[in-house]
Specification:
transmembrane helix; XK-related_scramblase; globular; mainly alpha; XK-rel; XK-related protein; 73% helix
Length: 399
């Protein structure tokens, strides 16, 4: 194997190990926080932390199990029998098993002198599923936990060291999950070059700077009106769910699981942008951004008119202008990214992303992650035309 390909595999392995470790650390931090709240007599906060953790975990296991059942027969020959997999998912260990399986397959490929193209494609197949599950876990568990943690800090007027650590790591983890998912989408289509280091940094930063004000606005409202935040979330979530339904999504293999996907995407859209249908995304993304900005402004205005409800020691009058600057900077970086740093600005029709081919095989003989290919086609509407012009098929990882 060429050294460049082996270096790419080693990088992916390291990132996989770090991602799995981050998941376990985040889980441990949530359980620790719940325990600390319970020991200090704040049973409602502990119950909310555990409830968010359980709901997100159940949804994640359902996604993982449905996808495994929908995969082609014989694709996962190295996996344990169906009953063992069902037991793992019932015990809420399905996602962790997938992470370990992906690391095992990546290590197997990296150790081989000349790995087969099928092994490479299968490793990419597993990593794409893990990337999407990580994104779902981020917005179903990490982001709500972050919002809850900020609301608790605002309501109590002080923060313990473990709360600050959890808040900072959560912000970084959410932005990293968005970057990782976007990179995964690009590996699905041969016409979409991967992000360069500079583009990746800007993409990471503008997501971080735009997500922070949104989370803080929701946390402020939660701290002021803890009994009404559920109604606010439910109202917006239903509107977003209706919007997704009107776009006619067909991502999951069955109607029941499709509604699970729509409900999850509506939760993501409550905090950040996520494209679900074909066509040019600029218009829909602009509408969604304007919608979130308007809602966030209303939440902040509500706080300003009821600021006496919060502890006096919180200097939010100093922090809010800084948050506004972060929002404007995030918008500016987003415009810079799509105007000058977006890979489509320098697209080359003959380029193949992450080319790691050793011995060519027909695309039909390689495992194709059709779930991610489907989302990639929706996210990159020009990819079909570019692929047709170049005469190239679409395989995850573009091997």
């Amino acid at each position: 194997m060429p050294w460049s390909s082996r270096a790419v595999l080693l990088r992916d392995l390291i990132l996989g190990v770090l991602g799995t470790a981050a998941f376990l650390l985040d889980l441990g931090a949530d359980l620790w926080a719940a325990g600390q709240y319970a020991l200090s007599g704040r049973y409602l906060w502990a119950a909310l932390v555990l409830a968010l953790l359980v709901l997100a975990s159940v949804a994640l296991q359902l996604f993982s199990w449905v996808w495994l059942r929908a995969d082609p027969v014989g694709l996962h020959e190295s996996q344990p029998p169906g009953r063992c997999l069902a037991l793992l998912h019932f015990l809420q260990l399905g996602y962790l098993y997938r992470c370990l399986q992906g690391l095992q397959q990546g290590l197997l490929v990296w150790q081989q002198e000349e790995p087969s193209e099928f092994d490479l494609a299968y490793a990419d197949f597993l990593s794409l599923d893990i990337s999407m599950l990580r994104l779902f876990e981020t917005f179903l568990e990490t982001t709500p936990q972050l919002t809850l943690g900020l609301a608790i800090v605002l309501q109590s007027g002080r923060a313990e060291y473990y709360q600050w650590l959890s808040i900072c790591t959560s912000f970084l983890g959410i932005s990293w999950a968005l970057l990782d998912y976007h990179q995964a989408l690009r590996t699905c289509l041969p016409s979409k070059p991967l992000l360069s280091l500079g583009s990746s940094v800007i993409y990471f930063l503008w997501n971080l700077l735009l997500l922070g004000p949104r989370v803080l606005a929701v946390a402020l409202f939660s701290a002021l009106f803890p009994h009404y935040v559920a109604l606010h979330f439910l109202g917006l979530w239903l509107v977003l769910l209706l919007w997704i339904w009107l776009q006619g999504t067909d991502f999951m293999p069955g109607p029941a699981s499709e509604w699970l996907y729509r409900a999850t995407v509506a939760t993501i859209l409550y905090f950040s942008w996520f494209n679900v249908s074909e066509g040019h995304t600029r218009g829909r993304a602009t509408i969604h951004l304007a919608f979130l900005l308007s809602d966030s402004v209303l939440l902040v205005v509500t706080w300003v008119t009821h600021s006496t409800w919060l502890p006096v020691g919180i200097p939010l009058h100093m922090w809010l202008p800084l948050v506004g600057v972060c929002l404007l900077l995030g918008l500016a970086l987003r415009l810079v990214y799509y105007r000058w740093l977006h890979p489509s600005c320098r697209w080359e029709p003959d380029r193949v992303d992450g080319a790691r081919s050793l011995s060519p095989l027909p695309h039909s003989q390689l495992p194709q992650n059709r779930r991610m290919i489907h989302l990639a086609r929706n996210f990159f509407p020009k990819a079909k035309d570019q692929a047709a012009l170049s005469g190239k098929g679409e395989v995850n990882g573009v091997l």
